[in-house]
Amino acid sequence: MSTPDAETELHRLLLAGLDGDEAAYRHFLQLLAGHLRAYLGRRLFGWPDDVEDLVQECLLAMHNKRHTYQPDQPLTAWVHAIARYKLIDLLRARGAREALHDPLDEEMPLYAASTHDAHDAQRDLMGMLQSLPDKQRRPIECVKIEGLSVAETARLTGLSESAVKVGIHRGLKALAARFGAARRLEGHA
């Protein structure tokens, strides 16, 4: 389902549900849950166990706040706002201060085609990370994927905090160079 089609279908189902069509409302929640799983799965890459809990929290909040939805407004904005607030609450509770400073990608599509995209991206990223030396790979895994602080990563890996920061910087730079080279090759193919 493409983004405009998903928006249109979900909007139609929600309005029918708000008018008392229980089957349409159930279908709305089922479809929305799949889209939220994909969206939140990309944002919570290092915490896959939290995705389903957060999806359920979002759906419950949307159900409880369904009376606040204004039918003449885009459904995406309403859903996205609730999902963002729930995501921020989770990140704060986890003490993921570094993640709170990252932009929450206003441009990131909420209505993704499937959760397979997130799994494919995770597989690809893990493959790319394996190509890095341990001094770069481990700090990236700990800080950027698992959400540990630089100090926690230094204690865990036995590296100094400066070495952790340098490892992250160099590793990300190497990945960006490889990714850019791969994209340039694709453009010539």
UniProtKB/TrEMBL annotation:
<dbReference type="InterPro" id="IPR013324">
    <property type="entry name" value="RNA_pol_sigma_r3/r4-like"/>
</dbReference>
<dbReference type="InterPro" id="IPR036388">
    <property type="entry name" value="WH-like_DNA-bd_sf"/>
</dbReference>
<dbReference type="InterPro" id="IPR013325">
    <property type="entry name" value="RNA_pol_sigma_r2"/>
</dbReference>
<protein>
    <submittedName>
        <fullName>Sigma-70 family RNA polymerase sigma factor</fullName>
    </submittedName>
</protein>
<dbReference type="InterPro" id="IPR039425">
    <property type="entry name" value="RNA_pol_sigma-70-like"/>
</dbReference>
<dbReference type="Pfam" id="PF08281">
    <property type="entry name" value="Sigma70_r4_2"/>
</dbReference>
<keyword id="KW-0805">Transcription regulation</keyword>
<dbReference type="InterPro" id="IPR014284">
    <property type="entry name" value="RNA_pol_sigma-70_dom"/>
</dbReference>
<keyword id="KW-0731">Sigma factor</keyword>
<keyword id="KW-0238">DNA-binding</keyword>
<feature type="domain" description="RNA polymerase sigma factor 70 region 4 type 2">
    <location>
        <begin position="123"/>
        <end position="175"/>
    </location>
</feature>
<feature type="domain" description="RNA polymerase sigma-70 region 2">
    <location>
        <begin position="25"/>
        <end position="95"/>
    </location>
</feature>
<comment type="similarity">
    <text>Belongs to the sigma-70 factor family. ECF subfamily.</text>
</comment>
<keyword id="KW-0804">Transcription</keyword>
<dbReference type="InterPro" id="IPR013249">
    <property type="entry name" value="RNA_pol_sigma70_r4_t2"/>
</dbReference>
<dbReference type="Pfam" id="PF04542">
    <property type="entry name" value="Sigma70_r2"/>
</dbReference>
<dbReference type="InterPro" id="IPR007627">
    <property type="entry name" value="RNA_pol_sigma70_r2"/>
</dbReference>
